[in-house]
């Protein structure tokens, strides 16, 4: 079986030889254009390095890079999502970048980044990945429907109660009692998105040392968060039930159809929503519960421990995720570099500014405490969310208690 | 006696000569990886660091794994539902395809159309049709005053919905049956008609027996493939809601590539392998009682 | 078939069959037509309530944009190369192997046949890594070899399919040819394959389709974008959080056209079928 040898000694490349780097990304479609653009610019400026992009669309990306890593043949540069970072880094798939960042011929000033965007790439105090793009959550709203109902647009800093009242005012039923317009479209049993509600309610899902779920997942704060979320569906009936339980966002389409006034989600579908004639789009920060909170979804690049030419890979990574890269990324996603966000006017844009402002309220995600979040607590929490959405009679406290115990024993029984 | 055994030896030699490509391919491309996967099943391996041998622990662990049993149950229930419907449905469709009517070519093509759509798009179309509020199925039902179920979003109907979705690909087996039907010599029908057999008797006494090799093939293949159902659930439900569509191979894939437990996934795979192998041997053995091969008939 | 019904009854029966055949066809066509309709809509119209059948206005540019956003021409060429090699490999190898299993008696045959079937029983995810190691060791990664070469060594599905059909061919035809001095290869290619033509065509169609729609193998073995196949390209319309539905549908439909055409043409061989009597006579 091939094994991973973590070496810090870069291979010495003969003078004048061209290094060919491989870069793996899970981005797809139009999202690939900025990659190609940055690579082109980088190659023009660095004739001794060529970069081959190896994109894989959608959910099969991890199956491919895991196979490649297991066989000892991964790309030099690997993109992974925030929740995979602890797992990959913990197993030694990436090298720490600190020495490259502070020393060496090509240092990187990490103070250029916006608040919170470096953290997901960090593990045990070291920086392993650098940010490519990110999105917090926010509330999209359709000004048309607000105007029709004579409801004022939501304002930054609004509370859970105001959010609920707004949603109620915008929910309309016909004479037969059938809902014709919904207050808000929620992202279904999406566990990572749900962490916002937990943090905003002042709760935590896991102890800081990553060892304990009981007493956290089933705490009164988490109960309150689940209850509030479930009530939006089943008691207040301001949110349409998920069309399926799998798609991110619950597979619902009411907001796109102009039959839901608000939608909670990340920035990903924003370009499509802006072109949609059913919608006059506004975006506002997430409502404030016991505290103001948000969660970050993030993709970043790191250098594979198996890379044969880490020095060259670093030079590319530095561009890819630095100011040069951000200048290109900004046309496709939120830029990670503050200077770019400011100079392009995004920081003050009525819509983009909202997303950037949310970075000031990020709560740590649960997976930063344990590499095993995905196979222990995540399925347990998912079961709770699916149950409370499907069953209006569900007992939230009981469910969470069982879930915390399940997660706890799953963690303790890990092989 | 000597001559006969020489002929037999010659036949044996020809047999092995003809299947030699398969043997070479098997030894080279299949056996190695298969044995390695067996080895992996006795280890703990996250794919990122070297595997650690743990003996039979992966296998004993399954006994207490709630989701292992759940996935086994989902898979068996689905197989019991799907395999018979695939056999009967495929055959009925083939009989329709075999009619000699106007536009039959376009008609056959339309049965077959869904099977050419690549996996993801196929499933996505059905996810739209199943949408509880805006989907075509429930929108049509509501015109007749029927409140349709929530299909993929409801644990009570999700598996059934996946079954309906898969029936859309029935054209594939229908083609095999059609090929079987076309292989039946016309004289047999003529002879049967001469004996005064009607359509139903013709079907019972000519079509069915002559088609048993095809039925046998579809049954075995359908069993092997259905027990490994993956794509529809992977795309449409990811096993949910509440694990109601957690197919065995989906669970195995999740363990391997989402939870980084390749050792456990390999053990799961080998358990499934044994189950499928035993069932297949059972069906193959039963074949000698009900499969009729024209070529085996002593002339 | 001999029928004694009146012409009137006959007409009613024909009409009944006609309605049945097309009624069932409609069931199969509706999801497909919905797909076509969706491929011509702007994304926000796809989920409109109540469902709209006719795109207004039809977005023909979805097709051109979806197919030019990525180098689909290139992907089609790559896929075609792989597909042709695979069909050729399967037809050649599986015919020989299937004949042996169908007709020749040899010790170990039945056990070997179970082994052939068993190669389909181990779920792919667990052999993926060792296979990758193997092909990497052969230096076949980033070539079409891992996708095509194995086809020349037979594939259980097609071996089994052809075996079933060969076994239904009456032995006397073969015996007669043998008496005339034909050797085994001549028997296979002059007698068996023409007689099992519908099965051979079935193998070709399925093999075409399996290679054309194969996803996991190209995903793992082809890393350079200029080697990508159609299915890998289609995957690019989906990302984790959003999907370009209309483009996905447009590109899926456009790239499945070769299979639809192949089927439409190949079915001639089903219609004509084979009259054993004619051969015997």
Q: What is the gist of this entry?
A:
The complex is a heterotrimer of chains A (415), B (299) and C (281). With 415 residues, chain A is of the alpha/beta class.
Secondary structure topology:
The complex is a heterotrimer of chains A (415), B (299) and C (281).
Chain A: E1 19-25, H1 32-45, E2 49-55, H2 61-70, E3 77-81, H3 85-90, H4 98-102, E4 122-123, E5 126-127, E6 129-135, E7 138-142, H5 143-149, H6 160-170, E8 172-173, E9 179-185, H7 191-200, H8 220-234, H9 254-257, E10 260-265, H10 270-275, E11 281-284, E12 297-303, H11 310-320, H12 323-329, H13 338-343, H14 352-358, H15 377-390, H16 396-412
Helix pairs in contact in A: 1-12, 7-8, 15-16
Chain B: H1 2-18, H2 20-40, E1 43-44, E2 52-53, H3 57-62, H4 66-97, H5 104-116, H6 119-129, H7 136-143, H8 158-167, H9 171-182, H10 186-194, H11 199-226, H12 231-236, H13 248-258, H14 262-290
Antiparallel strand pairs in B: 1-2
Chain C: H1 7-39, H2 61-69, H3 72-103, H4 109-118, H5 125-137, H6 145-148, H7 156-168, H8 171-179, H9 184-195, H10 197-213, H11 216-221, H12 230-234, H13 245-266, H14 268-272, H15 276-280
Helix pairs in contact in C: 1-13, 2-13, 3-7, 3-10, 7-10, 8-9, 10-13
The major sheet of chain B is characterized as: 2 strands, antiparallel
Shape of chain A: globular
Q: How do the strands of the widest beta sheet of chain A line up side by side?
A: 2-1-3-12-6
What sequence of helices (H) and strands (E) makes up the elements of chain B? HHEEHHHHHHHHHHHH
Mean pLDDT of chain A: 91
The SS-based structural class of chain A is: alpha/beta
């Amino acid at each position: 079986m091939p094994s991973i040898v973590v070496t810090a000694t870069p291979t010495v490349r003969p003078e004048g030889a061209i290094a060919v780097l491989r870069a793996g990304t899970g981005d797809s479609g139009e999202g690939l254009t900025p990659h190609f653009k940055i690579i082109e610019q980088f190659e023009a400026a660095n004739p001794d390095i060529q970069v081959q992009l190896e994109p894989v669309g959608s959910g099969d990306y991890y199956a491919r890079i895991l196979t490649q890593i297991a066989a000892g043949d991964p790309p030099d540069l690997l993109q992974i999502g925030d929740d995979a970072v602890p797992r990959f880094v913990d197993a030694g798939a990436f090298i720490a970048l600190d020495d490259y960042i502070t020393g060496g011929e090509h240092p990187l000033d990490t103070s250029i980044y916006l608040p919170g965007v470096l953290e997901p790439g960090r593990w045990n105090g070291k920086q392993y990945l650098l940010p490519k793009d990110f999105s917090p959550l926010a509330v999209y709203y359709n000004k048309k429907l607000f105007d029709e109902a004579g409801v004022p647009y939501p304002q930054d800093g609004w509370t859970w109660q105001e959010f609920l009242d707004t949603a109620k005012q915008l929910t309309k039923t016909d004479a037969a009692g059938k809902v014709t317009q919904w207050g808000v479209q929620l992202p279904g049993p999406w566990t990572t998105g749900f962490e916002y509600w937990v943090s905003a309610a002042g709760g935590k899902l896991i102890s800081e040392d990553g060892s304990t779920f009981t007493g956290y997942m089933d705490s009164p704060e988490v109960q309150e968060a689940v209850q509030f979320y479930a009530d939006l569906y089943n008691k207040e009936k301001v949110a349409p039930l998920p069309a399926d339980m799998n798609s991110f966002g619950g597979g619902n389409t009411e907001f796109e159809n102009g039959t839901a006034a608000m939608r909670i989600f990340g920035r990903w579908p924003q370009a499509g929503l802006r072109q949609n004639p059913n919608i006059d789009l506004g975006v506002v920060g997430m409502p404030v519960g016991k505290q103001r909170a948000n969660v970050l979804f993030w993709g970043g690049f790191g250098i594979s421990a198996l890379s044969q030419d880490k020095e060259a890979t670093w030079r590319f990574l530095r561009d890819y995720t630095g100011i040069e890269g951000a200048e290109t990324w900004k046309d496709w996603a939120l830029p990670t570099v503050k200077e770019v966000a400011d100079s392009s006017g995004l920081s003050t844009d009525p819509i983009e500014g909202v997303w950037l402002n949310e970075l000031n309220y990020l709560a740590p995600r649960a997976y930063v405490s344990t590499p095993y979040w995905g196979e222990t607590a995540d399925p347990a929490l998912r079961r709770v969310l699916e149950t409370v959405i499907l069953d209006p009679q569900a007992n939230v406290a009981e469910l969470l208690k069982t879930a915390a115990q399940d997660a706890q024993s799953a963690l303790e029984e890990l092989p | 006696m000597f001559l006969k055994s020489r002929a037999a030896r010659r036949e044996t030699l020809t047999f092995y000569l003809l299947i030699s490509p398969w043997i070479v391919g098997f030894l080279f491309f299949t056996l190695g990886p298969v044995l390695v996967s067996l080895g992996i099943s006795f280890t703990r391996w996250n794919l990122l660091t070297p595997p650690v041998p743990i003996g039979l622990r992966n296998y004993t662990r399954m006994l207490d794994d709630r989701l292992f049993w759940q996935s086994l149950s989902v898979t068996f229930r689905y197989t019991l539902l799907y395999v018979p419907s695939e056999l009967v449905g495929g055959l009925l469709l083939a009989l329709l395809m075999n009619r000699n009517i106007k536009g039959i070519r376009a008609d056959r093509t339309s049965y077959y159309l869904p099977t050419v759509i690549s996996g993801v798009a196929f499933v996505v179309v059905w996810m739209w049709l199943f949408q509880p509020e805006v989907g075509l199925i429930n929108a049509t039902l509501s015109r007749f005053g029927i409140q349709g179920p929530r299909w993929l979003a409801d644990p009570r109907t999700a598996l059934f919905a996946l079954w309906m979705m898969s029936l859309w690909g029935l054209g594939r087996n229908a083609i095999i049956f059609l090929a079987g039907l076309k292989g039946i010599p016309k004289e047999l029908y003529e002879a049967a008609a001469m004996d005064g057999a009607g359509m139903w008797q013709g079907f019972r006494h000519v079509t069915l027996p002559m088609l048993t090799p095809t039925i046998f093939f579809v049954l075995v293949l359908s069993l092997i493939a259905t027990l490994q159902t993956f794509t529809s659930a992977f795309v449409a439900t990811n096993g949910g809601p509440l694990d109601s569509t957690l197919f065995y191979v989906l669970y195995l894939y999740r363990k391997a590539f989402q939870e980084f437990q390749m050792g456990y996934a390999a053990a799961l795979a080998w358990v499934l392998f044994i189950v499928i192998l035993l069932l297949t041997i059972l069906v193959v053995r039963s074949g000698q009682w009900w499969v009729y091969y024209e070529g085996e008939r002593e002339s | 078939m001999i029928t004694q019904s009146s012409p009137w009854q006959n007409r009613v029966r024909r009409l009944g069959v006609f309605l049945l055949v097309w009624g069932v066809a409609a069931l199969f066509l509706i999801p497909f037509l919905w797909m076509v309709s969706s491929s011509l809509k702007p994304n926000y119209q796809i989920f409109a309530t109540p469902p709209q059948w006719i795109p207004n206005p039809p977005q023909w540019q979805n097709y051109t944009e979806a197919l030019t956003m990525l180098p689909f021409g290139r992907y089609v060429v790559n896929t075609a190369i792989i597909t042709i090699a695979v069909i050729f490999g399967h037809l050649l190898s599986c015919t020989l192997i299937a004949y042996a299993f169908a007709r020749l008696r040899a010790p170990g045959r039945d056990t070997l046949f179970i082994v052939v079937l068993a190669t389909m029983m181990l779920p792919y995810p667990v052999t993926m890594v060792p296979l990758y190691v193997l092909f990497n060791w052969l230096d076949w990664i980033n070539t079409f070899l891992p996708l095509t070469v194995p086809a020349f060594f037979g594939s259980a599905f097609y071996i089994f399919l052809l075996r079933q059909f060969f076994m239904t061919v009456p032995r006397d035809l073969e015996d007669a040819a043998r008496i005339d001095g034909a050797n085994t290869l001549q028997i296979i290619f002059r007698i068996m394959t023409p007689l099992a033509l519908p099965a051979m065509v079935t193998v070709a169609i399925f093999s075409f389709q399996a290679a054309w729609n194969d996803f996991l193998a190209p995903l793992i073995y082809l890393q350079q974008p200029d080697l990508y196949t159609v299915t890998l390209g289609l995957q690019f319309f989906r990302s984790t959080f959003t999907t370009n539905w209309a483009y996905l549908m447009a590109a899926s439909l456009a790239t499945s056209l070769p299979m639809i055409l192949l089927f439409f043409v190949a079915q001639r061989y089903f219609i004509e079928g084979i009259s054993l009597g004619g051969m015997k006579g």
